[in-house]
Amino acid sequence: MSTAAWFYAKDGARLGPVTDAALGDLVRQGVIGPTTLVWRAGMADWQPWAQVAVASVVLTPGANACIECGQAFAPDDLVELMGARVCAACKPVRIQRIREGLAVEGAYFAYADAKDVVVMRDGVLPNRCVCCNAPETTRLKRQFQWYPPWVNLLILFPGLLIAVILMLVLMKKMRMEVPLCDEHRRRRSKRLLACGVWGVGSLALLGVSIPATSGTTTWVLVLGSIVSALGALVAGSYAAAVLTPRWITTEAGRFKGAAPEFVASLPAWPGRLKV
């Protein structure tokens, strides 16, 4: 263990020097937190403790430590988040740092798998548009849903009711924020508007066809209007989501629809999960 002399800021005062061991005690006692500024010889400037905790050997070997603040916790008080264990207080800090594209020790959030993106559950995509890899200007909060495609075959046999029940039982959900640039945000809005007009037009055709026609013609127009309205609904859901899940598990999700440039910027997926 090194014997570096540390200084820390508290209530506007600069305190210290303290040894590594003493600094570790202050961290565990809560005197020094993630945002507390610290400094020692060799550092260019004062930095928040959360940014230097990983490189500082100040905890008892084998202790369950938050990778952000460096404090020791009981195992149940730490959560697994993007490749490392963090305490509840540091979870928002870690997510924000990853979202801003800062280097984070031990973090994983998204990987490239062929043309697709694999995102860890609770992971944060980098701050680049998924449609063109330009800097993001907005994030869409989306909840993705997925169920095994073979369930759709059950609509034919044994029937729709069984297929719906299995769909609900096997369905996996995953919340994620999708980064977009201004241009692709506008394009998404235009697609949604077009789908809305399409759906309203289909329903209007349905309303007109019933009183204006009779016999076989009526049924053909009614069926066509319903199919068209359903098509508008499906197209609108795809336009709203931007990314489309290929599969979702309790650990991660695999999505298609990201730009090749965005996918190429991610580390390769090691393929640890099984669907």
Explained architecture:
A four-stranded antiparallel beta sheet has the order 2-1-3-4. A four-stranded antiparallel beta sheet has the order 7-8-12-11, with no helix packed on it. It contains seven helices and twelve strands. It is α+β, with helices and mostly antiparallel strands and 275 residues long. The chain has two domains: 6-99, no CATH class; 110-143 and 176-264. A hairpin with a 2-residue loop joins strand 7 (110-113) and strand 8 (116-120). 35% of the residues lie in helices and 23% in strands.
Name the features.
four-stranded antiparallel β-sheet, 12 strands, 35% helix, 23% strand, 275 residues
Short recap of the structure:
The protein is α+β, with helices and mostly antiparallel strands and about 280 residues long. It is built from 7 helices and 12 strands. The chain is about 35% helix and about 25% strand.
List the helices and strands and how they pair.
Elements (H helix, E strand, L loop, with lengths): L5 E5 L2 E6 L1 H10 L7 E4 L6 E2 H4 L25 E4 L2 E4 L3 H9 L10 E4 L2 E5 L17 E9 L13 H11 L1 E9 L1 H31 L3 H26 L2 E5 L3 E5 L3 H5 L11
Antiparallel strand pairs: 1-2, 1-3, 3-4, 5-6, 7-8, 8-12, 9-10, 11-12
